[in-house]
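#lab-general

N.A. 3:47 PM
ok so I finally got the sequence cleaned up, no stray characters, all 197 residues accounted for. can someone with queue access submit it? mine expired

B.Y. 3:52 PM
send it over

N.A. 3:53 PM
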Amino acid sequence: MRSRLTSAALLAPMLLSSVAHADQENDRLREALRSATAQSRSLEDQRTALQAKVADAERDKAVFKAQGDAAKAENRQLEKQHREAVDEFNQRLADRDQTLEKWRAAYEEAANVARSKDAERAKFEGLAATYKASTKSCLAKNDQLLKVGRELLHHYEDVTVGEMIVAREPMLAARRVEIQNFLQDNNDKILDQKVIR
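B.Y. 4:20 PM
back already:
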């Protein structure tokens, strides 16, 4: 018994030391467990926060993708409107050019007509001036013819039967020559008044 006691007494400090060591180990393990639990909670909190951030990022990504798609669609629409506006503008320019060409052709035609009318007017004015001068000349010659005709009539009104017999008498040729000279002078006056065209 003594040996048991001795052994127990020897074992007791070892046991106590073992228990103390086990308590320390338990305390260290508990502390490690607490630390691991705290780390686990911290990591779980971080994971949750990161998942929230990922979810927020996914939402933002979806929003940005939707905004990007909307911007692309709007850009395509704007490009389409721009192309349509450019096409419409080019069509208007082409229409304007055609209209200008028509106006230019009409102007050229009107200018040609105006030039031909001006040429005709100048020609007719020249003809009118010529005809006026010709008419004036004809009127003056007509007046001269009337004068010569009146002189002849006056001369023949005053002729007596005796003068006619004397004019036909071959012996009195002087009077006949005088009458022929008178007739020739008046014939020359009449021929001078002839209008030549």
